[in-house]
Amino acid sequence: MRFAKYAAVIAAAGALALTACASGSPNDAGGDTSAPAAAEDVNFDAGTTMAKLHDAGKITIGTKYDQPLFGLMNPTTNKPEGFDVEIGKIIAAKLGLTEDQITWKEAVSANREPFIEKGEVDIVVATYTINDDRKQVIDFGGPYYIAGQDLLVLSGNPDGITGIDDVKGKKVCSVTGSTSEENLKKEGVDVLATDTYSNCLEPLRSGEVVAVSTDNVILAGLADQNQGEFEVVDNPFTEEPYGIGLKKGDDDFRGFINDTLQESFDDGDWAAAWEKTAGKVLSTPEPPKIDNY
């Protein structure tokens, strides 16, 4: 099992996470994890979203608060941290905004599109899979990462689950409104749906479900956070391109986000963001190709 080779790294990551909480720094994970410095000289066309956000001196970003490695609330600092959070900081910095000019808003799977449509957030960076249904109501920048849906089981895998075929007709926990829930139903899986993936863990512990299913990196984070209790089957059955959600039809802003992501791929900021967060558990992947649909 490929995740087994990360055991030593995961253990180190857990120790680093405890150090981070004790220090009170949301980005302290064993090194300098400060966000990229805000751009000193920015000049955006009047009337664009970029100009409005820059002139207002603030941006509201939706992210998840319960996803280790990608978006997890630090109870000591009351700020989220993770790879998605770092990506949001990169976008903000390119707008000429500093980290303290970001307002973070918790976005769960079911409220991401409504938040964007109603203007409650400016962007959503929240393990947000790009798909055709969502693209009917919002737009996406990216992708900035390609994940794959997998299964989380009890440590030791007592049911001998090796992949999606082994859970068809059985009960698996996922999140309401997520692509993961839809994929499971298409595969003939009986889904127990809840509001957050962390709320899937107790049903797995109690035997109410045989597995939890979502993207492999999210499952790896849950296994890391609850060391010794769970393991990832490590047999992904989908590809999940993560994108940055924004208001439908804002082509200038989408182009700006895509350009910013590409620049972060090229200059190393993206890799640095990964290594500071998810890279504490998982090896650094190649950046994906931007989809300029």
Strand content: 15-25%
- Count of DSSP strands: 13
Taking all Cα atoms into account, the compactness measure Rg is: 19 Å
Major pleated sheet: 5 strands, mixed
N- to C-terminal distance: 37 Å
Poorly predicted ranges: 1-33
Strand order of the largest sheet: 10-9-11-8-12
Count of discrete alpha- or pi-helical segments spanning 4 or more residues: 9
DSSP helix fraction: 25-40%
**Which shape, going by the Cα principal axes?**
elongated
Helix and strand succession?
Answer: HHEEEEHEHEEEEHEHEHEEHH
By secondary-structure content and strand pairing, the structural class works out as alpha/beta
What integer is the average pLDDT?
87
What is the strand and helix layout of this fold?
Elements: H1 7-23, H2 49-56, E1 59-63, E2 66-67, E3 71-74, E4 79-81, H3 83-94, E5 102-106, H4 112-117, E6 123-124, E7 138-147, E8 149-154, E9 171-175, H5 179-186, E10 190-194, H6 201-206, E11 211-215, H7 216-225, E12 230-232, E13 240-247, H8 251-267, H9 269-276
Parallel strand pairs: 1-5, 1-6, 9-10, 9-11
Antiparallel strand pairs: 2-3, 3-4, 7-13, 8-11, 8-12
Helix pairs in contact: 3-8, 3-9
